[in-house]
Amino acid sequence: MTESDGMNEALEGQLRIAITVAGQIGEYIARARESALRRAQAAGEHNAQELATRLHAERAAARAELTAIAQDGWWEHAATEQVVHAWQVARAWADEDPSTRMAAERVRAEIWSRYGIDVDSTGANPADVRAALEQAEADRQNAEAERGRAAAEETEAALLMRQADAEERRAHEAGPDFEQALAAASGTRNDAHLVYDSAERRQRLARDLEAKGVAPDVVDTHVRADISQATLSEAAVPSTKAVKAKRSHRRGPLAARPPELTR
Predict the structure, then answer these.
(1) CA dihedral 80, 134, 139, 207 (to 10 degrees)
(2) Does 111 share its domain with 204?
(3) Of 91, 115, 139, which one is at a domain's C-terminal end?
(4) Is the domain of 60 the same as that of 151?
(5) How many structural domains are present in the chain?
(6) pLDDT averaged over consecutive 10-residue blocks of the chain (263 residues)?
(7) Minimal CA–CA distance to 149: which of 225, 230, 220?
(8) Domain range spanning residue 197?
(9) Residues 41 and 81 occupy one common structural domain
(10) All residues at 6 or more sequence positions from 177 whose CB lies less than 8 Å from its CB, including other chains
(11) 170 with 103, same domain?
């Protein structure tokens, strides 16, 4: 066996795992959505209508995303990650939407034709699939945590900006202490920019984590129906001193993503 053959086999094994995981996540999304609808209906008409509106938008987004796969040219240039993602999205909505069901059949046929893999029986090692699913769930949870921290920091930054505006207004009334008061306002505004920057990095990290194992649509579709959006209170926002104290603890550049599958 040549080194090239070994590499091809390894990539094929990764692809089989990825397709299996994508299909299972898609099925999980569908089941979670059905469960969420049942709970929303039991909770009352308002909750049911609110969820139905959101799911309608998500279904439309999935349909639009899968429009491209009807074109032969898309398949000629698509990376395996795109194909795997298309299978996940199609599987998540195939039972509810005729056009998405057709897309799922197209993806199924193309994966068999191009890679010789049956999406219903990929032959992937079950232990490897379990490990990949566990990693995907860990990435999803980490992404969710990063988004939560980003939301907190955005709130913190907004409060600091308002504080800086107030300090600048007071500076113009400070008389002889004008420059000192203005410098304090400038420092507060710099703190706000630091926090905004941190929030942006956390959002990028969340997207990176999602892309590694759980695509953004999984989070947007609320894989876990019991996830609730907590409203941040101003009482929970750190003070300006706390912001300054943690400057040295900001996260560094994002870690490099693992090598992606290639065709």
Answers:
(1) 30
(2) no
(3) 115
(4) no
(5) 2
(6) 58 91 92 89 86 90 92 92 93 91 95 94 92 86 89 92 89 77 88 91 84 47 34 33 36 34 40
(7) 230
(8) 147-214+229-249
(9) yes
(10) none
(11) no
Beta strands in the chain (DSSP E): none
The pair phi, psi for residue 20, each rounded to 5°, is -60, -45
Residues 193, 154: contact at Cβ < 8 Å?
A: no
Residue 14 in tokens: 């990764």
Q: Looking at the whole model, is its pTM more than 0.90?
A: no
Q: Give the per-residue SS3 of the chain.
A: CCHHHHHHHHHHHHHHHHHHHHHHHHHHHHHHHHHHHHHHHHHCHHHHHHHHHHHHHHHHHHHHHCHHHHCHHHHHHCCHHHHHHHHHHHHHHCCCCHHHHHHHHHHHHHHHHHHCCECCECCCCHHHHHHHHHHHHHHHHHHHHHHHHHHHHHHHHHHHHHHHHHHHHHHCCCHHHHHHHHHHHHHHHHHHHHHHHHHHHHHHHHHHHHHHHCCHHHHHCCCCCCCCCCCCCHHHCCCHHHHHHCHHHCCCCCCCCCCCCCC
Phi (first) and psi of residue 121, to 5 degrees = -150, 80
Angle between helices 80-93 and 45-65 (to 10 degrees): 150
Same domain, 234 and 194: yes
Q: Is residue 224 part of a domain?
A: no
The residues pairing with 121 across neighbouring beta strands, listed in sequence order, are: 118
126: in domain: no
In this structure, the number of other CB atoms found within 10 A of the CB of residue 49 comes to 12
Residue 136 counted as domain residue? no
